[in-house]
Amino acid sequence: MDKLRIIGGHRLSGTIPISGAKNAALTLIPCALLTDEPLTLRNLPRLADIDGFQHLMTQFGVSVNIAGKRPEDFGRVVTFEATRLTNTVAPYDLVRKMRASILVLGPMLARAGEATVSLPGGCAIGNRPIDLHLKAMEALGAEIELAQGYVRAHCPDGGLPGGDFTFPVVSVGATENALMAAVLAKGPTRLSNAAREPEIVDLCNLLTAMGAEIEGVGGSDLTIHGVDRLNGATYKVMPDRIEAGSYACAAAITGGEVRLEGADGEEMGATNHALRNIGVEVEADKRGVTVRADGRLKAVKLSTAPYPGLATDMQAQLMALLCRAEGTSVLNETIFENRYMHVPELNRMGAHIETNGRTAIVHGVDQLTGAEVMATDLRASMSLVIAALAAQGETLVRRIYHLDRGYERLEEKLQLVGAEIERIGDD
Ligand code: UD1
Per-domain residue ranges for the chain? Predict the structure, then answer.
């Protein structure tokens, strides 16, 4: 398995192009199941998870056409065409590798009136149930049965009637599934306490471009008036606010100055607020965000929360940054119960972090030191890369397939701003 070799201590300076958002792309792709016309997505990041989802789509008889962009370009243009669905089963082998596969449930039910999706199984960041996805489908009129590790869903009268559902906790994935199921329902659907992440807005914007009728976009109460059919569309995936936030932390920990080209300052709101409190200058304009740090970082208190709060997907990277801050920081992870797997690894690099349940206490240290490390999820792996960029000496980050799931050509982007980082194959 490949590793990343990083020599710390280089001040990052320059421009990093920000890719299309992975978490948006993973809910935009299954929208292709909702229409027999072509759906073209631009700015799709080149990531293992996107390749995996494209492969899953071919299982249903969807043609996937990747248009000719040069290999050296970031992002690509892909056309999906689901003229006819030939299969409605998402098998265990694909779903277990990629939790987002559950997002075919809603659109498949809406279009084909039935769907069989493997239960995703365990996950490194805690117990991640799908009960809310299933309850929302039932509220819209689906009948659901669990058997042999699979969810079997069908619409008793051919199509979903639509209905009302209040999410007891905010769930990004379940909101996305419910939206995609509701757009072709026979009647209206009202979703209350829906997630309002920018990726949900991106999904609503695409669905609207396809002819869906959605009221309340951007808010937590959504009303969807089902339509008879949806048309195809060409749509550009929004910029990745988590990728941008990650590189902002990387720049800040090295006392550097980096332009995040294409990032959206507004969508990065809570992250940028946290960075400013830590002592990092953040300037946003229409075409991107610039971050600047002078090496002095202040301790802060942070708590993750659904949007517009601080994204759980930024917790690990901000923690790495806070390892070098003056004073003691307190982090509270409110979304997932087991999202501190990076802590022992950061401590092996000389950090001083204690955890107690969902709280982490980060005592700032003067110096981090390189070490051989590995992490068990995507953002945790990125936190190790960030720490390594400021650490004394060499760090080897193992299990980088996690990073390949979510960061498009990470080492190339960091090299662009002067990091000493290379991918080395297993010998
Ligand atoms: C979550 C994050 C999202 C992030 C993604 C990947 C939030 C609100 N969501 O999205 O920003 O990009 O992880 O790291 O921060 N839950 C249930 N039953 C369900 C679904 C969820 O109990 O059926 C619970 C989860 O255990 C969790 C909370 O609801 O505690 C939020 O989960 P959810 O938003 O669904 O997770 P993701 O969509 O994976």
Answer: 3-16+240-424, 24-236
> CB count, 10 Å around CB of 398?
17
pLDDT in tens, 40-56: 999 999 998 999 999 99
Nearest C-alpha to atom 33 of ligand 1 is from which residue? Answer: 171
The fold of 3-16+240-424 is UDP-n-acetylglucosamine1-carboxyvinyl-transferase; Chain (3.65.10)
pLDDT of the residue at 24: 98
What b-and-e string marks burial along 195-220, b requiring 16 or more CB atoms within 10 Å of the CB? bbbbbbbbbbbbbebbbbebebeeeb
- Domain 24-236 architecture: Alpha-beta prism (3.65)
Give catalytic status of residue 123 as yes or no: yes
CB 251 within 8 A of CB 12: yes
Whose CA is closest to atom 25 on ligand 1? 128
Residue 200: predicted pLDDT: 98
Out of 31, 123, 204, 249, the active site residue is 123
174 lines ligand 1 (CB under 6 A): yes
pLDDT per residue as tens digits for the range 47-106:
989 999 999 999 999 999 998 667 777 889 999 999 999 999 999 999 988 889 999 999
